[in-house]
Amino acid sequence: MKLRSALVILLFGTLALAQDIAHKDVVNEITGNLMCTCSCPHIIDQCGEECGMAPQLVHRISELVKSGEGPEDVYALFEEEYGLVVHAAPDTEGFSLLAWIFPFIGLLVGAIVVFTFARGLKSKTVEQDLNVSAPPIEDKYRRLLEKELK
Description:
Structural class: mainly alpha
Strand content: under 5%
CATH topology of the largest domain: Helicase, Ruva Protein, domain 3
Distance between the termini: 116 Å
Order of helices and strands: HHHHH
Helix content: 55-70%
CATH class of the largest domain: Mainly Alpha
Number of strands: 0
Number of domains: 2
Shape: rod-shaped
């Protein structure tokens, strides 16, 4: 009988530990995707203890997850309360998609401008080199050169 009760306690303890680990994983995921609201440029899980706001936000998120809220619900709640700036990365839908696309477009346009500018410089120098003729060689040096080449 004692063995059964010990196994039951061990089983429930293991389940409680597994739930606690899963709970911490969800909280860590959420705090890694939301910005701190203290106006510092850090994500909640990277904001230092000197902030004062980050520990409160982590506690609030933890309580929301314990009450059964999922990550999407927590994101929606924080977005409703603090606006879109609370997200660490912009959404990948709608107008926010431009925030993902414009850096690549800017790099492409910059590469085209640099390539065009470099190509223009190269063609000008080649044309200048072709138009320049060598200075004439004096007769005495020409004779010496011909003598050496024979």
